[in-house]
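[job 0417] fold request received: Cell division protein ZapA
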Amino acid sequence: MKDKDFRIHIKIDGRVYPLNINRDEEERYRKAAKIVEETISSFRKMFQDNDNQDILAMTAFQVALRYTEEQQSRDYSQFVDDIKDIKDDISDFLKEKEKK
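[job 0417] inference complete; emitting structure tokens
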């Protein structure tokens, strides 16, 4: 393994999954596993009669839904438009300055 490679074990729904990751990303992986575990636990409490497949499918859907919501909240198009406007303003200012 490289210096930055790091082996961790993530536990999800009672099973352990070994992963080789970049050492710098360990916290992110552990947080992700915790979110999955908490979501599974929450669905198990709400839907006690459902089998594992249903619980895991609902968990996957919930995590994917959160991901898409996060992606939408990061819409940078307005920011990019504002930067272009500022760039144009600076260009116009410099052109005017050159004329003088």
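[job 0417] notes: Residues 5-99 form one domain. The helical segments are 26-46, 52-73, 77-99.
[job 0417] exit 0
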